[in-house]
Amino acid sequence: MIDFEFEFQYAEAKLPILRQVGGGIPAGRCVVLCGGSGCGKSTLLRCINGLIPQFYEGELKGFCRLNGQDTAGMRIGEIGELAASVFQDPRSQFFTVNSSNEVAFGLENHGLPQDKIRRRVDEAFRIFHLERLKDRNVYELSSGERQLISILSAWAMDTDIFLLDEPTANLDFAATQQLKEILLALKKQGKTLLLSEHRLYYLADIADEYWVMADGEIKGKYTAAETKAFSAERRQTLSLRTLDLAEITVPEKELLPKTAPTALAVSDVRYTYGRKAGDTLSGVSFSVHEHEIVGLVGANGCGKTTIGKLIAGLYRPSGGRIMLFGKPKNLKQLQKQVLFILQEVEFQFFTGSVLHELQYGHKVTPKFEQKTDALLKRMDMWDCRDRHPFSLSGGQMQRLTLMMAYLSDKPIVILDEPTAGQDAESLERCAELIREMRKEKTVLIITHDPELIAGACDRCIGLSDGHAEIELPVHSERDLQAAQRYMEGFHPSDAPAKKQHKERFHPATKLLYWLALLVVISMSNNHLVYAAYAALILLTASDGWFGTALAGGMSFGLLWAANALLPGTVFSFMLVLFPRIIAIGISMRTLIGRNEASRTLAALRNLHLPERFIMIVAVIFRFFPVLSGDMKLLRQSIRTRGVFTSPLQKLRALSSYIEILTVPMALRVIRIAETLSASAETRGIDLTRRKSNYLSLRFSAWDVVFCVLLAASIAAGLIL
């Protein structure tokens, strides 16, 4: 069972976030922490799993007992053996690239034998019928699939208690239903569940009690039967979202005249990602009237966000036509007239305060200031106006981006999942603001939220198999039920996983080369550098990185030829510097690409290096696969907000442009590092016991051949 009582105040905070919060949860029960954003739900979970005060500093009073054991004096990892934690954003808590390695990570930290780790990992995927997610690249999985992997990672720890912090905040309708099935299975196994959650409908058959929090206190504890009997007014007072989707009502909405002009027309638009066979979008066609609010729904991965970015001019279609107000538009014209609000809110903030973020790009007149002040108060953000956007909660960030859209001068706005992490009161505020947008704008909402669809949308367009297959009006409860039935028909993708690459070299061989390379490039002997470079190209090609090896070889060849034709010019300098830079980049890719990050970390652990050092390396490795994608999102945000629309503008305000590119990325890295480290602590990275490995590493003839080649290359370079 769980038994606790806490008072807590964050370091440098003016007021306590928890005030005499206490309770007891018997074994095998499910309790849901609910209430408004910022009421202390996540903080309470951090107190129970030990992250407070050991990781998040502050003054903590009280006690916590898990299964009868007092957690005072326990390390976070030791508490993790009693209670497994699942965080809100799975993107920020993965240490490895491979899904099976991720499930094994906590077991490795606790030093279980390798054969037992392998059995436990296989069992996790089999019991929950998720074999399709085994040995997958986690960056190729959907948000819902990533969250499922994080839950499997928690289950693999074999604890009796599960602590989940808003597990559906980033999940679509289908993934939420799959999460429900997993939670039901855990409860049948006798596990104790404590969840912080805003979406409540999927918990109706799971929860035993609902604890309503406000102002850092538990204001009421209600049984499932009592909570289900709440009236709509009572739920609204407690800031609780609906427990039964059938009870959602559709407010009366202003009907558009049938003769309303068309604001957006998408005709046979197609799009292909990279070199993938077949179109991601195979011919999407639909239209939206001026001042209409349309929901775009469909199974995860069906192309909703893609079509939104095509309409906003952030992607270039491979076919078809997009028209605004009756005229076809190119990318630049689309970017000027369409605002796309990303689901990844943290990439859309360019200033140091909430107020300045709303004013950014606008002429600040007394009238605009009055409008902004009223909007902040209306959205319950007035007290946050001087705070940095990155200090806000996830729900507050979502509301800030929605206010930015409301103040935008662009006539068409596309919102991607605008109500993630919103409580009932905030959801209603968001729906009202979106309805008010229609006075000046046309709005397209990418969403899986039935409550938002009911409160804001005039109709829904369903995407499936790369095209728009259905249109559903939302004027009555019957219409909404039809839309819900359509959404309930979504199923997770059963697409086969990509064939796993067979690594030829032991990670220790690559580490040896990398260390040798660092020594070589620090020397002035260019022939030695070129010899080591040639060895690297051969290693890269032999390991299956043919494109990378070809690009590296051609780059060096072109520089060599240019220097031969024009000796004593800038090419001579480039021939000295560039091979060194390119070699570092290529060697890092061979160390962390595909599943190599996990294998490299396993090799470091086999060398019995300090775990803190390995954790630092793991955090560094974690960022490489996502930095390019994050930078892409940031550039899209800059384009859609109309900032620096031409190279000349970027040049004129180069310092501001660089600041906008670097500051959000730096803050994003800090946030990921914090969550990643917290996740590692709860899964035992701080334990002093001997660690083990899920992966088996063996040297082969390839390693011997390359080591001989490396020695020969260095010798040849020295002789030359």
Automatic annotation (TrEMBL):
Annotated localization: Cell membrane; Membrane
First-listed, main subcellular location of the protein, grouped into a coarse class: membrane
Protein name (Swiss-Prot/TrEMBL): ABC transporter domain-containing protein
Transmembrane segment boundaries: 511-539, 545-566, 573-592, 699-719
Family: Belongs to the ABC transporter superfamily.
Species per Swiss-Prot/TrEMBL record: Sellimonas catena
Matching SMART domains: AAA (SM00382)
One GO MF term: ATPase-coupled transmembrane transporter activity
Keyword set, alphabetical order: ATP-binding, Cell membrane, Membrane, Nucleotide-binding, Repeat, Translocase, Transmembrane, Transmembrane helix, Transport
Function: Probably part of an ABC transporter complex. Responsible for energy coupling to the transport system.
Matching InterPro entries: AAA+_ATPase (IPR003593), ABC/ECF_trnsptr_transmembrane (IPR003339), ABC_transporter-like_ATP-bd (IPR003439), ABC_transporter-like_CS (IPR017871), ABC_transpr_CbiO/EcfA_su (IPR015856), ECF_ABC_transporter_ATP-bd (IPR050095), P-loop_NTPase (IPR027417)
Pfam families named in the record: ABC_tran, CbiQ
